Request: fold
Amino acid sequence: MKDTKTLQVPPRLPLEKKDLENALQLLYLIHKLEKFKGYTGVTKIQKLCFLIEFEQKIRGIDGFSFNWFRWEFGPMSKEIYNLLKILKENEIVTQGYRGIILTQKGIKLLEDFKPIIEENNEVFKIIDWVVKEFGRKSANFLKNYIYTSFSIGDIRLKDVDQGVDLIMPKKEEKIRITIPDDWLETLEIYLDRELYESLSRAIESARTKPSLKYEVLE
Amino acid sequence: MKYEIYQTEEFEKKLKSLDKSVREQIDKKIKFLANNPYGGAGNVGHLKGEFKGLRRIRVGRSWRIIFAICEECRKLGYKDLRKCVDCENISDKSVKLFDIWKK
Reply:
């Protein structure tokens, strides 16, 4: 049972491989939701992620990978809160009157990662489908839809106790999101403001000041 | 050493701020790069996106050096991306150290 009253999740770096894979998909989802006029807050994003992961899993796709539990306002994953917090703190997403949207840096990141998104077309196609089907729906609609339509065994999610883990269906994995190591390392830099700014400063320094000879230690 | 090693001001500043033991570890890796910048068993990778043309090498488990190989940069056209101010004055057989950080 989880403590659903206090949802304090400290941001955590460095990100693991799975976090980076989740982050790229999450950014893609947020970007796709921007075409709708309504407010996209964290609870709506949580439910859409649940629907995406469920759909991926039943199709044998290893894409999103979060731990879920039943919460009053819909399926909940602390990892998504954590990830969004990191993305906000590193200026990849921002929260305003329209909810969570990508910053210019976030948009640039997605553009730069287009080859990876295209190579993982089967994974990202599910996000497109969920956005098309559910992107306009309110968070409340999504909560009711998920709690009345989804079950664990014979029990509808609406009848499951608060805080109980929601286990995703297990199908044989046919496809998994693949981000080569070089891209993962680059993604890590994009997502860490300190690293990103440090490297940008170094590049700028090379453009404006002659470099210095390195003398090896004796 | 087969390649000459250059460093950005940023790199120099950061290196100077590190403990001696870490500096020695990094220096050892730089000597390795000076003889074998393309890698071998050195865990060298390429950065992508806006950092295309830069490579990274691991130093132990937690440190990373970001560098470029001048001949590669010129051959693959990354020169226009990086736009180093002293490009004309540095030989092909050079390695430029850009940044260093702890993972």
Summary: The mean pLDDT of chain B is 90. The CA atoms of residues 73 and 83 of chain B lie 10 Å apart. The helical segments of chain B are 9-16, 20-35, 70-75, 79-82. Chain B touches chain A at residues 1, 4-12, 14, 23-24, 27, 30-31, 34, 45-51, 54, 56, 66, 82-86, 89-90, 96-99, 101, 103 (CB under 8 Å).
